[in-house]
Amino acid sequence: MAAIEPMNQFMIHKIVDLPPVHVGGLALDLSITNSVLYMLIASGLITIFFLTAARGAIVPGRMQAMAETLYDLVDKGLTGPMIGDRGRPFLPFVFTLFSLIAVMNIIGLFPMTFTVTSQLAVTAVLAVMTFLTVVVIGFLRNGLGFFKLFVPGGVHWSMALFLAPIEFISFMVRPVTLAMRLFGNMIGGHVVMYMFASFVIGLGAFALHGGLASLGFVGSALSLGMVVALMALEFIVAFLQAFVFAALTCTYLSDVVNLDHGH
Amino acid sequence: MVWMLAIFLVMFILFAKVFVPKVGGTMADREDRISGDIGAARQLKEEADAQARAAAADTAQARAAAQKLALDAKAKAHAEAAQREALEEAKLAETLAKAETQILATRDQAMTHVRDIAADTAATIIEKLTGAAASGDEISAAVAAQA
Predict the structure, then answer these.
(1) Whose CB has fewer CB within 10 Å in chain B, the N or C terminal residue?
(2) Interface contact B56, partner A, CB < 8 A
(3) Where are the domains of chain A?
(4) What is the block-wise mean pLDDT of chain A (263 residues), using blocks of 10 residues?
(5) Per-window interface: B 15-44 vs A, CB < 8 A
């Protein structure tokens, strides 16, 4: 019986080894790992889906209807209500984040695959990139008025003196929470699922000893039920975490885009 | 992870340049077309309504004209009948008047005869009673006094 190694599924190994690329003083390892492979698979699936779905028919087919439902979900569910009239330009950004994260999450739920979003490095890249986008757009739209973000409106200056550092910390912590939330949800779900799945086999094997150990079958069956239930839950989580990531991105963008007229 | 960033950027460009404009454009097109169709349908309905109204107005006008014509005809018939009646009446009155004068004339004539007859009768009676004939002048004076 193989050892129970719940973390092995998250191990990165190189598939195509490439020599490091030197940019300035940095040595970048651009080898294609299993993580990169699944990123490419995810983006490839999204590309194929949208290329086949976006046919531009007036009466949509099944695929096109699905693409349009997703479009509506992001447009009328995220950027529209959360950012408002000024949200339209951010639709592609939010849509890309949502699609990529959702597809990478869902691919990871299939057996023998790799969950890209269970890597803190990946979620951190996405989170920092989102954070920097928000900061850059904040400065572009508001100039130095961007700093008003840290002073809540209608607050006495003595209170603002206390509130500003708190607001600043809550702002700076955003990329961390954004990265940790997605990473934690993904890795946690997969570890729990792995553990219950290992119980199915472990307890089942134990039950084969006969006698009182036969009760192990009960535990094994319960664990199997748990795996099935968790699988359903993880599909929800996979979708929901992508949605949450996109929704928070919208909230952060709304903060800086609608800074001048109250938020 | 350089790869994640690179893939995200490629996907972002694809979304921004291809997917979002295409899907969004299709949906906008559909909305335009639906609203256009609804607008055209509404316009057609308005036209139909206007035509229906015009037809109703025409019908009402025709009915009014027909009623007027009927009334006119009736009035004309009435007038003609009244005129004819009056004519007949006048003719009748004339005949009546003529007949009356004739009757009066006949009576007057008859009345003049009555005096003669009375005189004759008186003369005959006197002759029978007295055996002597009375003179004509005396008798006529007596008759005139009696009349």
Answers:
(1) C
(2) no
(3) 8-261
(4) 69 75 74 83 88 76 84 85 80 89 89 85 89 89 79 76 86 90 90 88 82 82 90 92 91 82 55
(5) 15-16, 18-20, 22-27, 29-30, 33
Q: What is the pLDDT of residue A240?
A: 92
Interface size A-B, in CB pairs within 8 Å, comes to 91
Query: Is the predicted ipTM greater than 0.90, yes or no?
Result: no
| A57 near B CB under 8 A | yes
Q: CA-CA distances (angstroms) from residue A241 to A139, A238, B60?
A: 28, 6, 71
Q: Measured between CB atoms, which of A54, A116, A122 is closest to B26?
A: A54
pLDDT digits (tens, 9 = 90+) for B3-27: 788 888 888 888 888 888 888 888 8
Q: CB contact, 8 Å: A71 with chain B?
A: yes
Are the C-beta atoms of A63 and A6 separated by less than 8 Å?
no
Considering its fold, how many domains does chain B have in total? 1
pTM for the full model? Answer: 0.70
CA separation for the pair B40, A37 (Å, rounded): 53
In this structure, what are the phi and psi dihedrals at residue A21, rounded to the nearest 5 degrees?
-100, 135
Is residue B13 situated within a structural domain? no
Report how far Cα A123 is from the mean position of its chain's Cα atoms: 7
